Automatic annotation (TrEMBL):
Its main location: membrane. One of its GO terms (cellular component) is membrane. The keyword Acyltransferase does not apply. Belongs to the peptidase M28 family. M28B subfamily. One of its GO terms (biological process) is proteolysis. The lineage of its organism: Eukaryota, Viridiplantae, Streptophyta, Embryophyta, Tracheophyta. Residues 2-174 form the Peptidase M28 domain. It comes from Aegilops tauschii subsp. strangulata (Goatgrass). This is Peptidase M28 domain-containing protein. It comes from the Eukaryota.
């Protein structure tokens, strides 16, 4: 089983923030893992460190590698953890597929705020944006192939603020040393939270995934879509029905996890490693079930039916991207056929949510 960490190494110019702040964090993390090994530590799951080329030219390095190793990655990868711009400001910015939300929050509480030694990184996060976790629907970095093409749970994190030298010749060491991170403590904080998330995924006997966050996100996405199709011949009942099915699967898994945490139930699981493996496989593979072989209509490379880039803005993220594409087309054409296409996309989304519920619960649809 693999936990993969990645950062790209190519830059438009000097690239002190983008990507070299992330590269520095990756190298720091590699050194820390090496020191742990010298003390006898070994991860339960393999940790792979990746350094991509040609990210700025269209995510070429990571995309080609994912496509070439698709079979191995889809069968064995637990999660992909991406850091692009490691440091560019003073606020924690994090995005993830929803089952990793809680792990991300818990890791941030264990890292010291680099700007205030009496607080945690979580406190910095709350102060900057209220602990809002973004979603990985946009196509702006190397998580894209992992999430949107083959359906691997993923995270992207950064200590970030909008910065004027982005992709310019002024993104150099002088800017970083004077403005971005004068004491380079923010770099240490990024490496720390990155490493803690990686250790949580590589060392915990039961994968620390929480799919209840996914149910909430799916419901919120359905509410947003419903507002856009009011008065139109479209029904979201298939999506609502499949979300309820997923919620039942989440409750089933939660009861299994609660049983594990109760001492009297732990011994039988210890004596039955195949049962532990089965639960971990279901937690790992559920994200894959949100993908469809045919991909989005007109954009078949993007196979994730829940998260993908906007048709008109690759950096923009849309929940239910196939439905969003169909709605935009239908509003322009306003024909019965165009609204039937919207309904078709809704059924496609409902189907993958139902599939994910079956995978998580360990049954058949």
């Amino acid at each position: 089983r693999y936990v993969i960490l990645g950062n790209h190494r190519d830059a438009w110019t000097f690239g002190a923030a983008d990507p070299n702040s992330g590269t520095a964090a990756l190298l720091e993390l590699a050194e820390r893992l090496s020191k742990l090994q010298t003390k006898g530590w070994r991860p339960r799951r393999t940790i792979i460190l990746c350094n991509w080329d040609a990210e700025e030219y269209g995510l070429i390095g990571s995309t080609e590698w994912v496509e070439e190793n698709r079979a191995m990655l889809t069968s064995r990868t637990v999660a992909y953890l991406n850091v692009d711009v490691g440091v560019s400001g003073s606020g924690l910015d994090a995005s993830a597929t929803p089952q990793l939300d809680e792990l991300l929050k818990q890791a941030s509480k264990k890292v010291q705020n680099p700007d205030n030694g009496t607080e945690s990184l979580y406190d910095m996060w709350m102060a900057s944006d209220g602990s809002l976790i973004g979603r990985l629907g946009g196509g702006g970095s190397d998580y894209s192939a992992f999430v949107q093409h083959i359906g691997i749970p993923s995270v992207q994190m950064s200590i970030w603020s909008e910065y004027a030298v982005y992709h310019s010749v002024y993104d150099d060491f002088t800017w970083m040393e004077k403005y971005g991170d004068p004491m380079f403590r923010r770099h240490v904080a990024v490496a720390s939270i990155w490493g803690l998330v990686a250790l949580g995924l590589s060392d915990e006997e039961i994968l620390p995934f929480n799919y209840s966050s996914y149910v909430t996100e799916l419901e919120n996405g359905a509410v947003d879509i419903n507002k856009r199709v009011l008065g139109m011949p479209v029904s979201l009942s298939p999506i609502h029905k499949s979300i309820k099915q997923l919620n039942r699967a989440v409750l089933k898994v939660d009861s299994e996890l609660q049983a594990l945490q109760t001492w009297k139930f732990w011994s039988p699981w210890r004596n039955n490693p195949l049962r532990v493996r089965d639960l971990n496989d279901r937690l790992m593979m559920t994200e894959r079930a949100f993908t469809e072989r045919e991909g989005l209509s007109g954009r078949p490379w993007y196979k994730h039916m829940i998260y993908g880039p906007s048709l008109y803005n690759d950096y923009g993220a849309e929940a239910y991207p196939g439905v969003d594409d169909a709605i935009q087309t239908a509003k322009k054409a306003n024909t019965s056929e165009s609204w039937q296409s919207v309904q078709h996309e809704i059924h496609r989304v409902a189907r993958v949510i139902s599939q994910s519920a079956s995978v998580l619960s360990g049954g058949f649809s």
